[in-house]
Amino acid sequence: MNFSFLRTALATVAIGLAGGAADAADISGAGATFPYPIYAKWADTYKKETGLGLNYQSIGSGGGIKQIKAKTVTFGASDMPLKPEELQEAGLVQFPTVTGGDVPVVSLDGIKPGELLLDGPTLARIFLGEIKTWDDPAIQKLNPKVKLPSMAIVVVHRSDGSGTTFIWTDYLSKVSADWKSKVGASTAVEWPAGIGAKGNEGVANNVIQTRGAIGYVEYAYAKQNKMTFVNMINKDGKSVAPEAESFKAAAANADWANAPGFYQILTDQPGAQSSPIAGATFILMHKAPQDDAAAAAALKFFSWAYEKGDKAAEELDYVPLPDSVVALIKKEWATEIKGADGKPLLN
């Protein structure tokens, strides 16, 4: 249960702004917890290189969308991409930063990471509250060689608005007609079963502390805390582990060039190596920012991250974007994000 990495990272982000705000425009952002570890790492390195800090509030995608629409931050962050018509209505630009994925995690005595296997329909029935014990025949059928305990399943889900939840519920909606009709896909849903916890941190902590629990977290949280992850059967019928290569495979065929507003959802993608619960994470900014200097500083930060942040992203189990996608993003910045003088903020 070592969450010291996360606490240290949070302090780093806050200190970064305190050190740089006097000399340059504030870079303020809020939203998704999914990319929080990499944004924290980038912020720390960027502060050392430039003296400029980043104040990023890891409050969930729902909160990030609300704050950028209310113009209380320079950028919002969400794992649920906004549809092109919503972007247009709000005067926003959206672009991805990295890809990764959700991971089912459990707390079961004697079960090692990757030893348990589930498929989408069974996972949906667990989260619907229909499968109530670990030795249920549906789980046993998928795991004939695993000794499953006769123990109640404790479902743990997010209590806050969350892009991690959007990725999770979008996947369940694609593999289960019952889930789609009864619950659906969103950053926040009416959960039919289980207990709620705030943030990836809260879900991870609850699962670790509760015997018989199952929940979902972003992979960096699962790996940092050595959680017991579950392998999944993907769209091609293959068993895949949640790891960088399987997330990369899921994102490999995404057609970003023909996606208005970079609107792409990467769940349940085809491919033998594809993780079925993959997703990108996105930044939201105003086309006509209130503070040109702050918006320009934010764009410089993300430009630096695309150019120099790939290694750090990979070390934290995120998948960097291909150079071709970064080129599309920078073209979008030049044509869509303008200062008060009508010129691009970043040359």
UniProtKB/TrEMBL annotation:
- Superkingdom of source: Bacteria
* InterPro entries xrefs: ABC_phos-bd_PstS, PBP_domain, Phosphate-bind_PstS
Keywords, sorted A to Z: Phosphate transport, Signal, Transport
- Gene3D superfamilies documented for this protein: Periplasmic binding protein-like II
Quote the cellular component terms of the Gene Ontology held in the record. ATP-binding cassette (ABC) transporter complex
The family database entries (Pfam families) matched by this protein are listed as: PBP_like_2
| A biological process term (GO) from this entry | phosphate ion transmembrane transport
The PBP domain extends over 19-306
A molecular-function term among this protein's GO annotations: phosphate ion binding
Signal sequence region: 1-24
Please give the function described in this protein's UniProt entry: Part of the ABC transporter complex PstSACB involved in phosphate import.
**Of which family is this protein a member?**
Belongs to the PstS family.
Q: Relate the assembly described in the record.
A: The complex is composed of two ATP-binding proteins (PstB), two transmembrane proteins (PstC and PstA) and a solute-binding protein (PstS).
The protein here is known as: Phosphate-binding protein PstS
- The organism encoding this protein is Methylocella tundrae
